[in-house]
Batch of 2 targets.
Target 1
Amino acid sequence: MGEKSSSLLSKKWLILFIICVGGGIVYILPYIQYSFYDDLQAAFGISNLQMGNLMTVLGIVSSIAYLFGGLLADKFNVRWLISISLAVTGAAGIWFATFPSYPQLMAIMLIYGFSTVFTYWPAMIKAVKLLGSDDEQGRMFGFREAGFGLFAFVYSQLGTWLIYKASPDITGVRNIIIYYSIIYFAAAVLSFLFIPNSSASQKKEKVSFSDLMHGLAYVCKMPAIWMVGLMVFCAYCVSGAGLGKLVPYWTSVMGVDTGVAASLSSVRLYLLPFLAAALAGVLVDRLKSATKFLTRAFILLIVAMAAFTITPAGNNMAVVSIIIGFAASFVIYMMRGTYFVPMTELDIPDEYIGTAAGIVSFIGFLPDAFMFTVFGKMMGDNPGAAEYKAIFWVCVALAAAGLLLNYGTQVLIRKTKKA
C-alpha cells in the first residue's frame, strides 16, 4: 500500500511538472514584443500604433476567451485541449517567424488569444485542480505558479544568450521565435503523453450542452465566485499595472542607475515568483484555507504598499524603497500563486471547475483591458514623484478592497458549510 501511495504521489508531481513545462512557454510568443520591441518593429516595418494594436487585439480576444473557455474545458478533455493549444501556438509561431504583413500579424494575435486562453487557460486550471485533494490545492497551485515562472526564466535566458546574442538583430529575433516554437511542439507532445484524461476524474464520461448551461447557471448563482473574481481583480491591478511602475519610479524619481534597475527587474520578475509562489502553496495547505492565507497576505500588502508610498523620494532613500518594493512584490507573487485556490473551498463539482475558472479569470484579468491606460493617464507626459505616488495610493486602496472581498468570501463559505 505504501509503495502504491508513493507511486501515485510521484506521478502527480510528474504531471504537474509537465504542465509547468508547457505553462512556462505558453505566453512567451504572444508577449514577445515586450522583450524585442525595436527589432520586431523593424522586421515588421510597422508603426508604434500598429504595434500597440497587435496587443489590443490580443487583450480583447483574451478577455472574451477567459469567459467562454471555461465551458470548453468542461465539455472536452483537458489533455487534448492543452496539447492542441500548445501545438497551435507553436504553428502560429512558425508563421510569425516569417515576419508577415500587418493584416497577417493581426490574424496571428487572434490565434494566440484563442490558443493561449480559450483552449488553454481554464483547461490548465482544471487539470491542476484535479491533480490533488482539497488538502493539496495550495501546493498544487503554488508550485504551478512557481514552475511557470522558473521555466519561463530558463527558456528566455537560454534563448537570449545562446540564440539571439549570436546574431543580435532581425535574424536573431527570427531564430529565437523558431526556437520558442520548437519548445511549444515539444511541450505539446509531452502534455499529450503524460496529462491524464479529465473524463477519468469526472462522474460523467460525456457532458451535454444542457449540462454546460446548467453548470454555467449553477456557478453564476454563487455570490462567492463573483467575490473571488473581484478579489483577483484587485490583486491583479496591483500586480501588473501597479507594481509594473516600480522600475521607472526607481530610475526617474529615486535616482537608481538604469542598469541596476534592469537587474533588479529581472530578479523581481523571475526569481521572486518562483520563491514566493512555492512558499505560499505550502503555507495555504498548513493553514488548510486559502482565504485565511489571503487575509494575512492582503494585510501585509496594504502595509508594504503604504510604507513604500510614504517613503520620501530621492537617491538617499533608494535602498529603502527597493527593499520595501521587493517586499510588496514578494507578497503579491505569493497571492498570485494561490488566488485561484479559494474555488476549492466552494464545493464546486469537478465537472464545472472549468466554468468557474473561466468566470473568475474573466473578472480577475479585466485590468489588462483598461488599467494600464488608466495609470498611463495618471502619469501624464512628465511623471514625477506625485504622479507615481498617486498610482501607489490607488494600489493601497485596491489591496484594502481585496481584503474586504476576501473576508466576504470567508463569510459566505462559512454560511455554506453550516447550511
Target 2
Amino acid sequence: MTAYDRDNHGWRSYPRGLLVLALATFVLFLARGMVLPFLMIYFAQIVGLGESLAGAGIALSSVVGVVATLALARTIDRYGARRILLLAVLAMAAVHATLWLGRSPGLFFCLMSLFGIAINVYWPASDTLATAFLPPERAGEVFGLQRVANALGLGLGGLLGGWLVTGGDPAAYRTSFLASSAGILCAALLIWWLVPPVHRRSAMDGTALQGDWRGLLTDRRFLASQLLLLLGVAGFTQFQVSVPPFLREEAGFRERTIGALFAVNTLVVLLAQVPVARWTTGRPFGHLFAATGIGWAIAYASFALTPQTAAAASIGVLIYSLAELLFMPASGAVVVALSPSYQRARALAFASVVWAIGWGGAAWIAGVLLERQLAHLLWSGTVAVMLGLAVLAARLTAFLGGQPSTEQPASAGLGRES
C-alpha cells in the first residue's frame, strides 16, 4: 500500500461538506433522472414534435447555456460558488415544473433555453465548490464521488420515471415533471442548510482576480484537453439522448426496460467509480481518454445490433459503463490539473461550455438522423468518432501528462463567501 493509499483511504478521508454536497447531488439527479432519459421520447413521440425538432431544442439549450456560462463565469469567484449553485438549482426546479407545457415549438424552444441556462451555470458552480474541498491531486476522487452521486440518482430516477410513464400517457409525464421539480427543491434545501461556504486560499489572498480568458485560451495543453473532452462528450451524449428513443422505436423496448438498463449503468458506477477514480490518480490522461474511446466504440457497435438481438443492449450498457468509469474522473481532473487555482473557476466554466457544445451538437445530429430513420449512420459515425478519440488521446499522452501539482485545499465555513 502506498503512502497515498494510507492517507486517503475510505470515506473518512472526505470532508463532511463534500459528502453532504454529494448527497444533495444524489437527490438532485434522482429528481432529474425521472425525466432526462425520457425527454426526447416525450417531446418527439408523445407530444409529436418529432426527433429533429426535439433534438434542435436540446441543441438550442446548449447554445443558450454556453452564452450564459461565459457571461456568468466570473460571478462564481465574485459571489461564491455555493451562492451561484443555489440559484442555478432553484432555476432548474422552476424549469422542470413547466417543461411539460412545451407542446408547441415556440414554447418548447423557450423552455429549453431556460433549461440550458440553469444546467450550464450549475456545472461550473458545482465543480468549483466540490473541488475546493480537497487538494488538486485528489480532483479525480472528487469527480468520481460526484459521479457516483449523480449516477445513482439518475439510475433510480430512471427506474421511477420509467415506472410512472410506461404506457405513454401524457398525464403521467406531467406528474413525472412536477415530481422532478419537487425533488430538485429538496436538493436546494440540503445545499442551503448543510453545505458550508468554501474559500480557496487563492481567493482569500486576492490572486483569484489575476486570471482572464486570454491566459486560459492561449494555453495549448488546456485546449488540447478540451478537444478530447469534446469528443468524449459526443460519445457520452448518445447514451443519454439517443439510446432511449432508439431502443423504444427500433428495438421495441418499453420505458420500464429502458429505465432498468440505466439502472445497470448506475450499479456499475455505484460499485466501482470511487475505487477506479482513486486508481486513475497520477495516470496519464491520454491513456484514460484512449481507453474510453475504445470502450465506447465497442458499446455503440453493440447498441446498433439491438434490433437484431436484444441481448446486445445489455452488452452495450455494460461496456459503456466500464469505459465511463475512466472518462468521468479524467474529464474533470484534467481541467483541475492544467489550470492554476486563480483560473480554476474559468477553466471549469470553459469545460462546461465544451460539455454544452458536445451535448447540444450531438443531440441535434442524432435527432435529425433518427427522425430520418438513418440510425445506421448515427451509430457508425459515433463509433468512428470514438475511435478518433482513442487515436488522438494516445498521441497526446506525453503532452498532457497526468498528475496535478500539490496545492492546499480550501477552508470551509470561515465567514462570508467572496
